Amino acid sequence: DAKTTQPNSMESNEEEPVHLPCNHSTISGTDYIHWYRQLPSQGPEYVIHGLTSNVNNRMASLAIAEDRKSSTLILHRATLRDAAVYYCILRLSNRDDKIIFGKGTRLHILP
Amino acid sequence: NAGVTQTPKFRILKIGQSMTLQCTQDMNHNYMYWYRQDPGMGLKLIYYSVGAGITDKGEVPNGYNVSRSTTEDFPLRLELAAPSQTSVYFCACDRGNTEAFFGQGTRLTVV
Predict the structure, then answer these.
(1) Any idea what DSSP says for residue B84?
(2) Omega cis (within 30) before B8
(3) Which chain B residue's Cα is nearest to A86?
(4) Mind listing the pLDDT tens digit for each residue in B32-46?
(5) How many whole angstroms separate alpha carbon B62 and alpha carbon B79?
(6) Which A-chain residues 21-50 have CB contacts (< 8 A) with chain B?
(7) Distances in Å between the alpha carbon of B64 and those of A58, B15, B34?
(8) Calpha distance A85→B18 (Å, rounded)
(9) Which of A77, A6, A23, A87 is nearest to B37 (CA)?
(10) CB contact under 8 A, A97 and B97
(11) How do residues A43-81 score in pLDDT, each as one tens digit?
(12) Are B68 and B9 in contact (CB under 8 A)?
């Protein structure tokens, strides 16, 4: 399985943008990049996913490098509620697709 | 839609007892997953299923069994509970390489 590498933790100030990086240098051409987050004492929740082009939704933006070996999840204006563990995951495109979580990045938001 | 429903929410088991963790989804998703999350750690995949009648081992399947007789239900069975199985268990579902939905978790303690 292709692996992802994320920083263990990051800090950001409230109401400022946050850029969460993810390296996936062994990504294959048809692997999708997914992001999930887990708020304290809750199950993970989907944030965003993409293949090659940058993606935007109501929660975040996903910027994918041209060579696809890295990506960045962008929270445009962090709030205290965004404090969570963020997971960058590669979803294989074959039939027996499954979700394998890494260690993720623990994001701390400073008021 | 209720989404993904897990029961029970909490359970204390004695060593050697057995139990079934229930997971039901009403979204008609083919893919279902069981994860465990030990304190302060990431999620580990126990078993997954790509459709009714099909199950596969994940990263940490030992000590567990699953079945998938219907699209909606994916129960996880512990036959001989051990302290090492003390964890929070999450069930999830999706259509495969799409947004996955997670249940609220079952907190299991084996004493």
Answers:
(1) G
(2) yes
(3) B42
(4) 999 999 988 999 999
(5) 11
(6) 32, 36, 42-46, 49
(7) 38, 14, 10
(8) 32
(9) A87
(10) yes
(11) 999 999 999 989 999 999 999 999 999 999 999 999 999
(12) no
